[in-house]
Structure formats: C-alpha cells, structure tokens
Design a protein that fits this description.
Blueprint: H1 2-30, H2 36-63, H3 70-108, E1 119-121, E2 124-125, H4 126-148, E3 156-162, E4 175-179, H5 190-202, E5 207-211, H6 226-229, E6 238-241, H7 256-272, E7 276-277, E8 281-287, E9 290-296, H8 311-315, E10 324-327, H9 332-341, E11 347-350, E12 360-362, E13 365-367, E14 379-383, E15 386-390, E16 408-414
Parallel strand pairs: 3-16, 4-5, 5-6, 6-7, 9-10, 10-11, 11-15
Antiparallel strand pairs: 1-2, 4-16, 8-9, 12-13, 14-15
C-alpha cells in the first residue's frame, strides 16, 4: 500500500509540474512586450500566488480539523480549487496546441510548409492565439469562481405546479416546500440562513420536506443552527430523511461506537427541531376522511455511495393509499428501483447533486458537469405518471460558492 501511495504522490507531482510549466509559460508570453518593471511585478505576483496555492494544498489536512475557522476554510478552498482548475484549463489548451504543432511538424516532412496553415490572421500565429485564449478563458473562470462565493446564500425560490390525477380532492391546492442538503458544517452566516428560513415561511406551506444531508460529517456542526431551523413549522408537519453525509462515512472515527453515537445524535437533532425523521417508514396524513402517504427511506444509491435504506419496508401498509410521496435523498434511486418496482409512487423528492453548484440554467440551455454522472440532476422529471423533483440544495460543500446553480427553496403546488 505504501508503494502505491508513493507512486500516487510521484504522479501527482509530475502532473502538477506539467500544469505549472504551461501556466507559467503562458504568463511569460503574455508579458514579454511589457516594460521590465511591469513584467517583473506581474511575474512576481504570479509566483506569490503559486506559493500561496502550494501552502493551501499542505493546509488541507488541517482544514479538516473541527477547530479550523470555517470562514478561512471556505476562502482557502475557493482559492485552491479555483486556481487549480484555472491552470488545468490553461495547460489543457496549450497542450492541445503543442500536439497540433507536433502534427504540423510531422506533416511538414511530407508536404510543403506553405500548404500548411499556421496563422489565425496576419500578424498572429495560431500558437499566440491559443495562448491568449487560454489565459482569457482561464482567467475568466477563476474570476467567476471567486464571484460565485457571493452566491452561497443567494436563495432562489422555484415554484412548481403539478396536476396529478390520483391526488385526493381534500389535498388539492396543497403547498409543499422542499429543502435539501443543508450541509451545516459549511455554513458561516447565520443572518443569511435566517433570510432563507423567512423565505420558506413566507410561502405559507401546508407541509415541509427536508431530503437529507443535515451535516457534512458530524452532529456538532448543527449546534449553531438548531434554533434557526427549529423555526420551520407547517400545519401538516415537517418531515425529513437522512442523506449520505449524515452517516459520518467520510471521516475517521476513533471507534464504531463513536460513529454510531454521532448518527444517533443527528437523529435526535431532527426530533429536537420538531422534524419527523422517516427511517424506512411511512406516515399517513388525513384530511376530510381522505389520506395520502409520506414514505421516507434512508440513503439508497445506484451510484458509488453507501445504501442503508429499504423501500419495501417504507412501503409497507401504503398499497391502498391513492397518492404517495417518497423522500429519497439520492436521485439515482428513482431509476434504480422506484419507477421500476413501485409505479404507484406518484412523486419522489430528492436532493444530493447540488447541480454541482456550477452550471448554466437559462431558458434555452440547462447544463452542468454533474449531468455526465446523473441522468436526473436538477429540477422536474417525469416518466409515465410518476414525477421526480431534485432540489439543488440549500447549502454547499467543497466549493464554497454557486455559479449559475443557485441554492434553492422549492414550492410545489398540487392540483
């Protein structure tokens, strides 16, 4: 195992060196015609940023410590990720240009050079164009990621109207608010979070659903936010489930007992806030003699994440209920089991993907890198008479920001 880890470190260093070579070459090219003082200032600033970035990499283990300031953690992660991705983009573009030049050189052995185009327009070679394009594109991306940090608490209300035939008449017009993926371990601004709670309550929901990931890893991440989320109330109740992060699978524990105690406390926090946590079970809601069923499963994933849930157990006793809502954190569960074996579950509510916190959502284009992993990744989906809605997440994790995919409060109106 040590040999494998050593090889991994060597490969990592080699890749970083290649990326750094191309990035520094691009910077040197861009300043070659500037005055010496200006050129040295720019190159010195870049070298200082590289040193800061390397220091940030070495600080990552310390950032996992519970005592590390969360605000500084978010800033350092945003800088570290943004700077790395920017340099990867620049290096990738220039590496492609080097491959193009290699092919050009090989071709020149067989064809006359004047027949091989090497200019974008008079006065600029393709290599010069590619270098400038790489810097412009990479710099724009870096700036965008820094700007996206300001969107961490820019909650967006999404109003969905669904007409479902099996909905009992007594429940027509029911207003559902869904939130998901609080990731309280990443939150640093209580006042901003309160504004999100006010937005939820302003919708006057009949019922509220939370679809998992209360914390990043540990129960004490919620200590500063229990009083805030306890304000969520609705006439028909607040129902919740666990997400993959709630089980503490992504940190090292001193013992299995400590891990189990952490999970039990997370479950008790749901109860403390007045939320009804559904653990592979269902609850019936009755109005005017008519009933609907709320099913909730522990995390079930058709991807690489751990599965703890049991839909068959959650389904027990609900077969005769005409309308069913399933709370299931990971949307891959919908194609993996729900719409194949439980075709009378009318609406599934999920979260988990966050829309990757990065993408484009405009009237004529909806795109995020996460769509190459998840077929259903954000918003409303339908298959036959079944619906799936995926909330883009209330909080954030990893990258402490949002670019194009805003944090979400969902209002679903049933008719």
């Amino acid at each position: 195992m040590r040999k494998f880890n050593g090889l991994g470190v060597v490969l990592f260093v080699v890749v970083i060196c290649i990326i750094e070579y191309y990035s520094f070459s691009a910077i040197k090219f861009s300043v070659k015609n500037l005055k010496p003082l200006t050129k040295n200032l720019i190159l010195g600033t870049y070298i200082a940023l590289v040193i800061a970035w390397i220091a940030t990499i070495f600080m990552f283990p310390a950032m996992r410590n519970d005592n590390f300031d969360k605000t500084w953690r978010n800033i350092l992660i945003a800088f570290g990720m943004g700077f790395l991705i920017t340099k990867i983009i620049i290096a990738s573009i220039l590496l492609l240009d080097d491959l193009r030049r290699l092919l050009y050189t090989i071709s020149s052995l067989f064809f006359q050079k004047e027949n091989l185009p090497n200019a974008v327009h008079e006065g600029m070679t393709r290599s010069e164009f590619m270098t400038k394009f790489a810097l412009a594109f990479g710099g724009t991306l870096f700036g965008t990621m820094l700007y996206g940090m300001g969107n961490r608490y820019n909650y967006k209300l999404r109003n969905i109207k669904l007409s479902i035939e099996t909905l009992p008449a007594s429940f027509k017009g029911m207003r559902i608010v869904q939130i998901s993926d609080l990731h309280s371990g990443s939150l640093t601004n209580k006042e901003a979070v309160k504004r999100g709670i006010d937005l939820i309550l302003a919708q006057k929901p009949d019922i509220i659903f939370f679809t998992g990931d209360l914390v990043n890893n540990k129960s004490d991440e919620m200590d500063d936010y229990i009083d805030i989320f306890s304000q969520l109330k609705a006439p028909l109740g607040v129902y919740s489930i666990l997400g993959n992060h709630d089980y503490g699978d992504y940190v090292e524990w001193q013992s299995t007992t400590a891990k189990n105690e952490n999970l039990n406390r997370i479950k008790s926090i749901h109860q403390q806030m007045g939320w009804q946590l559904l653990l592979n079970e269902n609850k019936m809601i009755e109005k005017s003699g008519e009933r609907i069923a709320i099913l909730g499963v522990e995390n079930i994933s058709s991807k690489r994440f751990h599965s703890y849930g049991d839909l068959s157990k959650a389904y027990e006793g609900s077969a005769g209920i005409p309308f069913k809502i399933l709370l299931s954190h990971d949307p891959s569960h919908w194609d993996g089991e729900t719409n194949k074996q439980y075709k009378d579950i009318d609406l599934t509510l999920s979260g988990h993907t966050h829309g990757m916190q990065f993408g484009v959502e405009i009237p004529w284009l909806k795109w995020s890198p996460v769509q190459y992993v998840y077929k259903q990744w954000a918003g409303l989906y339908q298959q036959d008479n079944q619906y799936l809605y995926i909330n883009r997440g209330f909080g954030f994790i990893g990258y402490p920001g949002r670019v194009g995919i805003m944090p979400e409060v969902t209002l679903i109106e049933l008719s």
